[in-house]
Write a structure and sequence with these properties.
Length: about 160
């Protein structure tokens, strides 16, 4: 349980900032709700965005600290990845989509990344944003393009 909670806490502490798409405009965000964006695939192999909200429950995981809101799930791998400025621009120009290598969470630590799904939608992600990619093969996938500065991420499977 400790390993699972620790893995989740690493993601949830960064995710508490919300997501680019539906970030609340006031600092009074309900701490028992955690929104993030996912990319999923439909039977026609097209990729799409969806905003998901996770309900968190109060846990007493670190006494004597006060209980906090959390919801854990198993993680098998955590990796850090960095993308140079403009990474993916050639693929964008050629409209060359790629599927995710596996279903995974991507937590944006620095920089900005634009992502386009095969249905034509595009969204921008930055520090504190969480993206769940589930558009694995045979899905057409998505196109990722790093902004003018390097992008650093944490990837959790």
């Amino acid at each position: 349980m400790y390993t699972k909670l620790a893995s989740f806490m690493a993601v949830s502490s960064l995710a508490a900032c919300g997501t680019t798409v539906e970030r609340p405009s006031t600092p009074t965000m309900d701490p028992s709700k955690l929104p993030y964006v996912r990319i999923y695939c439909t039977p026609d192999n097209e990729s799409h965005f969806e905003t998901v909200t996770v309900d968190l429950g109060k846990v007493d995981a670190a006494p004597p600290a006060r209980p906090f809101f959390a919801k854990g799930s198993a993680a098998t791998r955590v990796a850090f990845a960095a993308f140079e400025s403009g990474w993916g621009a050639e693929e964008e120009a050629a409209r060359k989509y790629h599927p995710a290598p596996a279903a995974q969470y991507v937590v944006y630590l620095s920089g900005q990344m634009s992502i386009a799904t095969s249905d034509g939608q595009s969204r921008r992600f930055g520090p504190g944003d969480v993206l769940r990619v589930e558009d694995v093969a045979p899905c057409k996938g998505h196109i990722s393009v790093a902004g003018p500065a390097a992008v650093h991420t944490m990837v959790v499977r």
